[in-house]
Amino acid sequence: MKKANSICSTLLWLLLLSLFLAGCTTVKATGERHLTLMGESQEIARGKQVNEQIQRSMKLYPDKELQTYVDHLGKEIAATTERPDLPWEFHILDDEAVNAFALPGGFIYVTRGIMAYFENEAQLVGVLGHEIAHVTGKHTVIRMSKSVLAQVGFGMAQILAPELKGLAPAARAGLQLLFLKFSREDETEADILGVRYMRNVNVDPRELIDVMEMLARVSQDEEKGSIPQWASTHPLPENRRETITSHLKTVSRRLYEPVERSSYLRRLDGMTYGKDPRDGIVRGNHFYHPDLRFKYAFPPTWKVVNQKQAAIGISPNKDAVIQMTLAKQRSAEEALRDMFRKQG
User: Fold this and answer.
1) Contacts of 171 (CB under 8 A, 6+ apart)
2) How many angstroms from the chain centroid is the CA of residue 156?
3) Based on CB atoms within 10 Å of each CB, which residue in 93, 180, 226, 233 is the most buried?
4) Based on the number of CB atoms within 10 Å of its own CB, is 267 exposed (0-12), middle (13-18) or buried (19 or more)?
5) pLDDT, tens digit, 9 for 90 and up, residues 55-100
6) Which residues contact 40 (CB under 8 A, 6 or more apart)?
7) By the 8 A CB rule, do 119 and 261 touch?
8) Per-residue pLDDT, 227
9) Could you tell me which of 301, 311, 302 has the C-alpha nearest to residue 281?
């Protein structure tokens, strides 16, 4: 039995090794070899799928001229990178969070919240370059590939040690969390590549240092104990600022396009800052929606949370919840009948 297990173990590890070697490719942006079990067409398909989900669940900022400006600017930077032929898309989300993120395949988002904090176009270029770098560096692809390999390895371990089967659900969930978020190393690499892409379009990369200082200020302004959305997996802005400053000492000096503030700020003229009252307003225990023209009074001691897709009231003991969302049915009567048809 021991001999059979030994042979099985050897074969399984050989299979893992062959998977690793077959999927090991050189990433052009960094020159490093990494495990990539996802081809470019699969990466693009995955990105498109998530992109559609985001646009169904979140609102794009309703300014076509500003959307076109960011998309054109992003594509101009992307054209100078190691992956110019991806179907690049750049969008602004109608969200007050100070945030930006990248999807595999070249789908990039910035929020109106972060755009309102930039002082000039060069700073926007720096953040777009950073997010583009996550795609050119294949950070999502690499982490998903590692996740697949780890899942295969865990499945093989269960064959060799059946007592591990009870741990499978928790282990798989842990592996997904471990591999699917960008690591701090990914973020640092994206900052370095972001400097490269700023230089590619002749924009002063020193403006990225000012972005880090802005993010540090935003972090200090956040409520105690909470984490800004942009910082969930990022190194501290102060550390990133030092990394970028050190890296800039290693690159050749040149004359960049002048950094001009007023033209960028004119583009933002009239942009909503902070929470958009059109998504609803909370005053005490009352919720008001100006566009839908209704108000609702939650119980006096309840906490009211207003989200993009719902207004939620939570009891003090957190043992009851009232949630209001838009019904999918065509009339109130139809929605009511549909609700009462559900069991429980």
Assistant:
1) 154, 164
2) 32
3) 93
4) middle
5) 887 889 999 999 999 999 999 999 999 999 999 999 999 988 899 9
6) 86
7) yes
8) 43
9) 311
